[in-house]
Every structure is written in C-alpha cells, then in structure tokens.
Amino acid sequence: MAISIGGDSLYLQSMQNASAAKTEKLSSSLSNIEKGTATDEELMAACKEFETYLVEQVIKNTKSAMLDDEDSQGEYMKMFGDKLNQSYAEMITETADLGIAQMLYESMKRN
Questions:
Q1: Do 97 and 91 form a contact (C-beta atoms < 8 A)?
Q2: What are the start-end ranges of the H helices in the chain?
C-alpha cells in the first residue's frame, strides 16, 4: 500500500532547493579560496565537503555495482536512497579518520 502526500513534485522541489543552497555555499567558499581571502575554517570546511562528496560517490557506485537490478529496490529507496547515501557519507566523514580533507587542506595551504 503506497501513501502519497503532496506527490513527488513537492519532494523533488525541496531536494532541488537544498541542492542549490549547498552548491551556492560551496561555490562561495571556493570563490573565497581562489581570491585568497578564505579563513582556515572556511578552507577546512570546503575540504570536508569535498571529502563527504567523494565518500558519497564511492557509496553510490558500490551499491550500484552490488545490486543486480534497480527494480529490486523498494519504492522508498528509489525516492530517498540518495539522501540516505548522503547521510552515510556525512557520518563516515565525521567519525572516521580518512584523512582526505586534512591532506587536501595542507596541500592548499602550501600553495
């Protein structure tokens, strides 16, 4: 039994708005970095965002390689799977010490 509240268009619109806001924030951070006016905190935040994005792409590609058919996923996983992957990536970036953001930060500080 499927329940629809407001249809998929409301969900898609909110996801597009969130994505646009995140893109604008990252673009602003990168602009400050290019100008050389970014603070150390802004630089590290941009590096962490990149690390999160990288981990999210690894998760997505790993799942797609492991799943035989996207039709085998449930309706909700099709709709919210990307948000789940993003949440996993954020948790991994915050809790695991991958070191990608730190290496990128140190490299950018040198240059």
A1: no
A2: 7-35, 40-66, 75-95, 100-110
**Could you give the CA distance from residue 95 to residue 81 in angstroms, rounded to a whole number?**
21
Distance, CA of 104 to CA of 52 (rounded, Å): 13
Question: What pLDDT digit, counting tens, does each position of 13-23 carry?
Answer: 666 666 677 66
80-92 pLDDT per residue, tens: 888 888 999 999 9
60/44 Cα distance (integer angstroms): 24
The distance from CA 26 to its chain's CA centroid, rounded to whole angstroms, is 11
Q: Locate tokens 């802004």: which residue?
A: 42
The amino acid at 16: Q
Q: 100-110 and 40-66 are packed helices; what angle lies between their axes, rounded to 10 degrees? A: 140
41-88 tens-digit pLDDT: 888 888 899 999 999 999 988 887 877 655 566 777 777 888 888 999
pTM for the complete prediction? 0.63
Tell me the residue length of the chain.
111
What region does 74 belong to: left with phi over 0, alpha with psi -120 to 50, or beta? beta
